[in-house]
Design brief:
Radius of gyration: 22 Å
Largest sheet: 9 strands, mixed
Shape: globular
CATH topology of the largest domain: Dihydrodipicolinate Reductase, domain 2
CATH architecture of the largest domain: 2-Layer Sandwich
Helix content: 25-40%
Strand content: 15-25%
Number of strands: 15
Number of domains: 2
Bound molecules: nicotinamide-adenine-dinucleotide
Structural class: alpha/beta
CATH class of the largest domain: Alpha Beta
Length: 470
């Protein structure tokens, strides 16, 4: 593709935003107009997007239609392409897609591996496109904060695809918490059984690390798969799906699950800026700095705020679980080790691995009473509990914002990524959230803000002061 043309196009968009920072360059749509969508990442979880945008009985098809798609692997994406978007213009490089079809596109869905979310989303936003991005929002903490800034700067509607956040269940859980039923929450446990080694998502390299250098098959555009991340030669264990275990590309079990299982406590308690994150225990087969652990326990300490006392939050994977049961736990009930517990001084809220799986008060007898007089509905619901329809409603001005818009999505992602950082570095990380830095582990800086591969730097919105003084 003609990169110069693309970069020139991006420059124009940025310049428009610079001259007119208070006016949106995003396309606006009236309730009757159809939103033109582009989807980057067609195979794999791309199917979630294609199914999701349809809504119940195809109701979403009145709101939006796919006009362009992009995937770096013509073979792996072929099934979804045939099933969902046969005949739609297909690209290999999203930059070429934005360059050639940008004027016909209102909004972009990004369903690619974690390491490529940031630049694709930022490039689309800087052209005024609304964006929906898979979870976790980004691969590093700086990127999450930049996408949050870009949302306000470009005045576009944003949604992270942690689908549980669009369900009535999580909104109901927050109403329970807001009613005061739990009392002050001081301890949270987030448990996720995996990784299940050997399934399609989590594989150990048979040759160990470093990986063998291979040659990508014709149908895979390997350089585009790497994108802005650190270059390595093709190896079939990385693409598709099993990139998750390699820190350079994935974000491990926390990246895979925390935005689901940890969504309710982060939202209810407004958890952010922990003072420390600590790897309490871990079992690793390979270099911890390169490959995720088999099992681990991570602890975040969130300082007291107006909304909550000091909170200790724990993450468990690889089959580990809390050693002590909540004070109000049912007698003779096992703790499965997959799900979430928000332990209040009075009562505990419990969910399964997603907030919409079996939300309840942990004590059965109390829950049976509580159900008779649930706190009133106070939080608006997403149309059909569907994150895409909620996003379309925001784009059309029917609602102000989506539930998992990038203000919240970047907060949730940052908490998850701080956990991944502890798994990667080991030990205790003292964290200064305001200044986005570790005060005791200088080696964390390279992962908090990763250096993009040459030629893959994203143009990020700058404040007026930064523009004037550099
Ligand atoms: N919300 C959920 O429940 C859920 C579930 C699974 C995955 N995910 C997230 O979705 C994302 C994708 O995961 P996956 O399991 O589908 O991975 P995957 O490896 O199957 O990749 C998805 C698709 O993106 C394509 N792709 C990769 N790099 C690309 C690029 N630079 N440009 C265009 N296309 C590219 C791949 O060829 C593939 O077709 C991840 O961020 C993951 O965390 C979310």
């Amino acid at each position: 593709m003609d990169r110069r043309k693309f970069v020139k196009g991006m420059g124009a968009a940025t310049a428009t935003a610079f001259v007119l920072p208070r006016f949106s360059i995003a396309s606006t749509k009236s309730p009757n107009e159809k939103i033109n969508l582009a989807c980057v990442g067609v195979g794999g979880i791309g199917s979630m997007t294609f199914n999701g945008i349809k809504g119940k009985q195809g109701t979403g098809e009145k709101d939006a239609g796919v006009v362009a798609v992009c995937d770096i692997d013509s073979k792996y994406s072929a099934n979804n392409y045939k099933k969902f978007c046969q005949g739609v213009k297909m690209f290999t490089d999203y930059r070429e897609m934005l360059d050639k079809m940008g004027k016909d596109i209102d909004a972009v869905c990004v369903s690619t591996p974690d390491h490529t979310h940031f630049k694709i989303a930022m490039d689309a936003m800087s052209l005024g496109k609304h964006v929906a991005v898979q979870k976790p929002l980004t691969h590093d903490i700086w990127q999450a904060r930049e996408l949050k800034k870009a949302k306000d700067y470009y005045k576009v509607k944003t949604q992270m695809m942690n689908q549980g956040h669009a369900t009535s269940a999580i909104r109901m859980i927050k109403e329970w918490y807001d009613s005061g039923v739990t009392g002050p929450v001081r301890e949270v446990h987030v448990m996720c059984g995996g990784p299940a080694w050997g399934n399609i998502y989590f594989k150990k390299p048979p040759e160990g690390i470093p990986l063998k250098k291979g040659k990508a098959p014709e149908h895979v555009a390997w350089d585009l798969w790497i994108g802005q991340a650190k270059y390595c030669d093709y190896n079939p264990i990385l693409h598709p799906l099993a990139w998750r275990s390699f820190w350079d590309y994935g974000t491990g079990m926390l990246g895979d699950w925390f935005c689901h299982t940890g969504d309710a406590p982060v939202w209810c308690l407004d958890l952010k800026d922990p003072v420390s994150i600590e790897l309490i225990e871990a079992d690793c087969s390979f270099d911890r700095n390169v490959f995720i652990p088999n099992a681990s326990v991570v602890k975040w300490t969130f300082p007291k705020t107006e909304k909550h006392p000091e909170v200790a939050m724990y993450w468990y994977d690889g089959g580990l679980k809390p050693k002590k049961l909540p004070h109000d736990w049912d007698k003779n009930r096992d703790l499965k080790g997959v799900g979430m517990l928000m332990i209040g001084d009075n009562h505990t809220i419990e969910t399964g691995v997603r907030p919409n799986i079996n939300p309840r008060m942990a004590n059965t007898q109390f829950f049976n009473e509580f159900k008779k007089n649930l706190p009133p509905k106070s939080i608006p619901r997403a149309r059909q509990d569907n994150l895409y329809l909620e996003w379309f409603d925001a784009i059309k001005g029917n609602i102000d914002e989506c539930g998992s818009n990038f203000d919240y999505a970047s907060q949730l992602t940052e908490v998850a990524l701080l956990g991944s950082l502890a798994q990667r570095l080991g030990g205790k990380i003292e964290w200064d959230g305001k200044n986005m830095r570790s005060t005791n582990r200088p080696e964390a800086a390279q992962y908090v803000k990763e250096t993009p591969r040459a030629g893959w730097e994203a143009s990020v919105p700058k404040s007026w002061l930064e523009r004037i003084f550099g």
